[in-house]
Design goal:
The structure holds two protein chains of two kinds. Chain A is built from nine helices and 16 strands. Chain A starts with 7 loop residues before the first helix and ends with a helix. Classes of the chains: A alpha+beta, B alpha+beta. At the A-B interface, helix 3 and strand 9 of A face helix 2, helix 3, helix 4 and strand 6 of B.
Chain lengths: 429, 367
């Protein structure tokens, strides 16, 4: 169980920043043009933020793509049967905030709505998740996109369609298999629009609480989508890269803006062809990269859709500082238990030791990958440019976003207004 | 691997298919809160399709190299069967007798159907609970480390806080003995009645068993009847050992049954009513050896000689059938013959009967 105790000192700094919001301010640093991000809609008044809130009619929608990710071997025959058909999915992000709360809305295409049912143990529900790092800013590495890592915990909200119950879960996680239920102050709602064939899920949370302080100019957030019709659940889902939400009322840290926007300004950061040449000389000894599959399977992480959900700077950091983010391996129990008696004639599964990608445990995990920080910056940029091409191509262009209220929503779930949080009190001067 | 392993032996020659175990389990654990369709304990007729229907065809378990295999999440309607009731109240006012659902399958749908043609028909009962395996496929499949084996008794449990309702465990369990509670979005399974175990009581299914077919004890308790049947006399076999999960529920396989009859109605000498292929399919190639041992022991008894195996299988005393010596300090179990005698189940459970046969022999062995 990780410690997410109150970060009082940081909270105090945040309070000062909150005061600054109320003061007239002019030119903060701005994000580089071409860097895709979400501009949050400011409101002076109350922020309901659920799917019925008219604010979603005016909040700017940013088109994003979620790429399929399969973090662990699946043992469900039905799932494995449809796994190959899974392509990238289009989605749209919106955000809105007031002095106390932030509301985030994700809308995505789904031709069919699937919900869990209390009487159907084999039915799976469509779902969406919001992931936030507990700590972020200049000098702090972004967590691994899937469940964070030991040094960079994340908090996760999942909302799932369930016909007979209200299904929402709140977690803290620090790597695969570490999801731990906690209590978050987030309110969620979910609605399927039968006309546009789109789901909308909203998350409303205090701008600050003891888990995370979001009173910043630029907030990282990642999203996951599950298609219940394709038996998706758990590690079998679509994920987005870290997305960034711009809260205009808070100052933008230029160092942080520079850090997260590196290589993500629309144009390739280097020469992908040169990058592939470099990769095929070294990296493929351990990694399966694109069509280069000479390494022993499982020796090092594979790069299936890494260009889709890996932020350019995350990829750069993985090359130059491999131990900055070390991912715990999933499925720890897949192997025979240590010391377990084996049935006659049954050989053990390859020992999990053979395939660990790191030494040490917890915070002290060190990647077995050597640092390639000695490479010239242009070569690293070429490699990143190549890695960014490693993703399943988006075959259909993003359809236009449809303003929610233009067509009547099919069955909006009961709206829930955010309750007065202690964070609101703390942010008052 | 847990430090100790609690295990169960079921003597299939004594199971009468009364479903008392099923009802004991259901009323104790699964009659509420989204578990209504589940039978953590079921008794199926063999030959037959079992519960859930054709579970042996649903994959899961490990291959010969020890790799976990993919399986299926059974469908509630066609696999498990929808619980239904009848309109008992309304038929008093003239309504026709109708089920409340249109059932397609149920936990004892093909009960007593069996196989073969009269007069050579045959069937036997196979009670099934979670095998609390030493190498559980459910635990291996879970991406969230939500399934664990208790160190003190090897009972396999679901951590309800960690379970994310992915149902990998249900697909991976080759015995289909872990179920999904769709109301709670959590997997649930037989818990070996661990709250009872912790008080020194046997699981409800074993306690209530009318045929006294179930023995419960620790595998390392060399004086216990479970250890003797499994390890010393080797007459109890795991179900489908080829699944590679190393079950800790063992079965004394049924004897071949009475001789079959030829067309003229005459018994065929040395004929086997229950086909050996059926038993080997379930319990592996050891079946015929065990049957021979049991036959030999029966002959010994008939000759008036002593048979430790049969004395155990006769199941004289609950206090000997159930050795859940929770009071013995952990870690001081194995090989310590000087250790104090294990605390037996409370005497109110020990429905002690000394049958005439044992009185005449005068040698009922007590451990």
């Amino acid at each position: 169980m990780m410690n997410l105790s109150l970060k009082w000192t940081r909270g105090a700094v945040g309070a000062v920043l909150a005061v600054m919001v109320l003061l007239p301010h002019t030119a903060f640093a701005e994000l580089p043009s071409g860097f895709a991000h979400v501009t949050a809609e400011w409101t002076d008044g109350e922020l309901k933020g659920d799917t019925s809130d008219p604010i979603w009619q005016r909040a700017k929608a940013t088109a994003i793509v979620a790429y399929r990710q399969r973090t662990a071997k699946l043992y469900d025959r039905n799932t494995n049967r449809v796994l190959k058909t899974a392509g990238p999915r289009h989605a749209w992000l919106q955000a809105a905030y007031n002095t106390t709360h932030l509301a985030i809305s994700i809308t995505w295409e789904d031709d069919t709505s699937h919900a869990m049912r209390a009487d159907a143990p084999s039915a799976f529900g469509d779902a969406a998740a919001l992931e936030l790092p507990t700590d972020f800013g200049a000098g702090i590495s972004l967590p691994y996109i899937g469940m964070g890592d030991a040094k960079h915990p994340v908090i996760v909200n999942i909302k799932r369609a369930h016909k007979d119950a209200r299904w929402e879960r709140q977690f803290v996680a620090a790597g695969f298999g570490s999801l731990t239920l906690i209590k978050l102050n987030t309110k969620t709602s979910m609605a399927y629009n039968k006309v546009t064939k789109r789901w909308q899920v909203t998350f409303v949370r205090p701008l600050t609480d003891h888990n995370v302080d979001l009173r910043k100019g630029l907030i990282p957030a990642a999203f996951a989508l599950w298609d219940g019709g394709a038996y998706e659940r758990g590690g079998n889902k679509s994920v987005t890269r870290w997305q960034f939400i711009r809260l205009g009322k808070f100052p933008l840290d230029p160092a942080y803006a520079k850090y997260v926007s590196w290589g993500e300004s629309g144009t390739p950061v280097g020469d992908a062809a040169k990058g592939e040449k470099l990769v095929s000389g070294t990296c493929i000894g351990c990694h399966h990269v694109g069509k280069h599959k000479v390494a022993v399977p499982g020796m090092a992480p594979g790069f299936g859709n890494i260009g889709g959900y890996g932020l350019a700077n995350y990829l750069k950091e993985s090359i130059t500082k491999p131990s900055a983010v070390v991912i715990r391996q999933p499925n720890l129990n897949r192997h025979y238990n240590r010391g377990g008696k084996r049935s006659a004639g049954h050989r053990s599964y390859p020992s999990s030791k053979t395939y660990t990608w790191y030494t040490g445990s917890g915070n002290a995990r060190k990647s077995k990958m050597p640092s390639f920080a000695h490479l010239p910056a242009n070569q690293i940029a070429d490699i990143v440019a190549y890695l960014k091409t490693l993703k399943r191509p988006v075959t259909t262009p993003a359809p236009p976003f449809v303003v929610p209220a233009v067509v009547p929503a099919a069955a909006p779930t009961a709206p829930t207004a955010p309750t007065a949080p202690d964070a609101a009190k703390r942010s008052q001067p | 691997m847990s430090r100790r392993q609690l295990a169960m032996v079921m003597d299939l020659n004594k199971c009468i298919g009364c479903q008392t175990c099923t009802v004991a389990c259901k009323t104790q654990w699964t009659n509420r809160d989204g578990r209504e369709y589940m039978y953590w304990n079921n008794v199926e007729t063999r030959p037959g399709s079992g519960y859930p229907k054709k579970w042996e065809d649903m994959g899961g378990g490990f291959d010969a190299k020890g790799n976990l295999q993919e399986g299926e999440v059974p469908n509630r309607r066609t696999g498990y069967g929808v619980p239904w009731d009848y309109n008992h109240d309304e038929i008093m006012s003239g309504a026709t007798f109708e089920p409340s659902a249109d059932p397609k399958w149920g936990p004892n749908w093909d009960e007593d159907v069996g196989g073969g043609m009269f007069p050579n028909s045959h069937h036997f009962y196979l009670p099934r609970i979670c095998n609390h395996c030493s190498n559980p496929a459910c635990m291996a499949a879970c991406n969230n480390q939500a399934i664990f084996k208790r160190d003190q008794d090897g009972v396999v449990l679901v951590d309800m806080d960690r379970c994310q309702g992915e149902r990998q465990c249900i697909a991976a369990c080759p015995y289909k003995k872990i179920y999904f509670n769709a109301r709670l979005s959590k997997s649930e399974k037989c818990i070996m009645c661990f709250p009872r175990i912790e008080k020194g009581l046997p699981p409800a299914c074993a306690q209530q068993c009318v045929g006294r077919i179930r023995f419960v004890g620790f595998m390392d308790d060399e004086e216990g009847q479970v250890h003797k049947l499994v390890n010393k006399y080797k007459v109890a076999l795991p179900l489908h050992p080829e699944y590679g999960t190393q079950p800790n529920v063992f079965y004394v396989p049924p004897l071949p049954g009475p001789e079959t009859f030829d067309d003229e109605g005459k018994p065929i000498p040395n004929s086997k009513r229950i086909p050996v292929e059926l038993l080997e399919h379930l319990f592996g190639p050891e079946v015929t050896r065990v049957q021979a041992v049991l036959e030999g022991e029966i002959q010994k008894k008939k000759r008036g000689e002593r048979s430790d195996i049969l004395d155990i299988l006769i199941a004289y005393k609950h206090s000997e059938m159930f050795r859940i010596d929770s009071a013995v300090p952990m870690g001081e179990q194995h090989g310590q013959s000087t250790a104090p005698a294990p605390v037996k189940a409370p005497t109110k459970l020990a429905i002690t009967r000394v049958p005439a046969a044992s009185l005449s022999l005068g040698k009922v062995r007590r451990s």
